[in-house]
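Good day; I would like, with your permission, to put a structural problem before you. What I wish to show you is a protein chain and, alongside it, a tokenised description of its three-dimensional fold. Thank you for your consideration; the sequence and its tokens are set out here:
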Amino acid sequence: MMSISAPATPGTLDPIPASAEPPSQPPVHARIRREAARRYLLLTNTAIAARGTAALRIGYGSLWVLFLLREWPERDVAWGPSSPWTAALDRQYSGWPTSNAVNGTYNST
């Protein structure tokens, strides 16, 4: 005679028959890509420490403005006619070809 068992109560697991195969998992790169996409959406779609981030941005911006104001009297030394960085130095260190805007020629050195 066959007995009928009661359904599993909530919170308990039904035993898995020995013949059942485990579900196949996607390849590792697919799981990594899916996890990266999930974390990207979490960071871009939710406000995480919005006030703290705003305070940091205000603080960094204020520091940058104060630095620029402090350097204002010295701007000619850094960027003006008496600056140590010249166009010749730029050509020497950058390695990029230069063009002569006056006569339209192109120099590869």
Summary: The helical segments are 28-45, 50-71, 75-79, 87-94. The chain has a mean pLDDT of 76. The first strand starts at residue 98 and ends at 99.
